[in-house]
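User: I'm curious whether this sequence folds into something compact or stays loose and floppy. Could you predict its structure so I can see for myself?
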Amino acid sequence: MAHTRIRKFNTKETYPEQKLDNDLCQAVVARGTMIFMRGQCPQDLDTAKNIDSHDPVEQTHKVMQNIRQLVQESGGQMEHVTKLVVYLTDIRHREAVYRTMGDYIKGVFPVCTGLVVVALARPEWLVEIDATAVIPD
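Assistant: Here's the prediction. I'll summarize afterward.
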């Protein structure tokens, strides 16, 4: 593992009423080159064109693919992700978004904060995720 993860946990234990299986932790100790990514939305990184879907799962796949692409273009890997901030426009999408996000962070254990907001920059966006990664020295 690239960084020291403090108090690892899985959301199956902390949110037993929800069908989640995300590897997270309470804190990450990291040294290296930091990658700060702007909040990623369900749009193509090259064209800025929105994906043609109003499904939270499909939107989350695109958001996480963008994060993975940016981490890799910066010289890192998903295991270098240290923090995620998830913005949702509807709390009812939380389980679907977190389950999908969990596919991309299995075994990574980043810290994560989730917020429900009134709206995002475009009305068709249901999810935005802000990510930070640290490539070890």
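Summary: The mean pLDDT is 95. The beta strands are 4-10, 23-29, 32-36, 81-88, 111-116, 127-136.
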